[in-house]
Amino acid sequence: MVSKERIGVLLAIILPLTILLYPAEVGTTARLALALSLFTVVLWTFEPVPIEYSSLLLLLLLPLSGVLPFETAFAAFSGKALWLVFAGMGLSLCITGTPLGDRMARTVLKRITCFRKLILSIHILGVVSALLIPSGVVRILILMPLLIGLLKALGEKPGSRVSAALVMSLMCSTYYGGTGVLTASVPNMVVFGIMEARGISIFWGQWAGYMFPVIGLCRTLLVYLLIRVLLPVPSGPANLPGDLPEEPEPFSKAEKKTIAILILGVVLWTTDAVHGIHPAHIGLGLVLLSFLPGIGPLHPDRLRKINFPLLIYVAAAFAMGYAIEQAELSTVLASRLTQWLDLSFISPTFRIGALTYLLLPFDFLADTAAIAAVLGPILLDYAAQMGLPPLPAALSIAIGSSLVFFPYQSAPFVLAYSFRYVRMGQFILLMTLMSVLTLLILVPLNLLYWRLIGLI
Fold it and tell me: What is the pLDDT of residues 297-313, one digit of tens each?
């Protein structure tokens, strides 16, 4: 066991014990939920054991400790989100398991032969997809298999520097770019629903005008620079392996079927507001078509190549959220916060910005959408008590809800990690740096921008 893994084991023991033994007003169940969550997150981060093992351990400890009933701890296996991840894995096989992936890679590299230009192009693609496709999970479902096909054609193995740079370029650009668009982020939609319930109106274009320039566009530019620094890629051309044919052959029958299935998926996913079919149902239907004998492009035996153990990690991530939510830890802490915190001594502009920072401790406790749903009303009431205008207060809460440090905090990151082309430590390092830089640079810059345009 290397030193990093030993440090992880040590922290996984010390930090939860500190929470359990430290006197606090919160109940035993809440402290147990927090301790088990912290124990698991540390193991996920340092990976002294495979993530699937630590995830299964959490799923067993939650009911054994009495934090959750067994049925609730394992409820994610019957939830739509986990099977949407499964659908993404299945559809990715259609691209990587047919010549379509190599064909698309040749098409891209014929036009963009430099790794650095390729990374920039992926960032642009991620931001554009956030503008066009509302669901972050669906964006990853559509784009990740295409990127995996490109990486396979390049001969890049999972965990390599180039693989990590390209995958995180796509994931982070579509996530962080989407935080500046009303319909591209679930926390945004949750905060929007709270605003509508309180009679605070805002249009899509207004939201984009207030949020996209700094929180969407500048954030994407910042993550591009971070990836260039953290994961420097070769400066030379991104050539395909020499054994691939120069001129593409005619489309095979399997490729045509795959393209038809993907087009059907894009049409159904982007029009879900019209037909009302859940994205998980669409995804599972597409997987069924993909592996149906005589109809799909792949033989049903290829389903064995899906990383089923990784679904345990997805289930554990949701179980962690259930535990925190049922223990009402966020509500208890928020209530204590509003009782003793007094921000009347600072200017209204900084009070609005402070709402973003107040969400920081809670962002670690559950999914970003759950944080927005639980704390949004509480902090809006708190803002009203301080005499702050409701619209910028709500927008500031939306920014705070989008801060992520670990993949389990946001479903799109969970899905992107499930492809296993990026190590957990690489994800966490980039996500943590992005959140820190957002708090130190972008939030103050955004407040200045709001001042300049007259919002505050």
Answer: 888 888 887 778 778 87
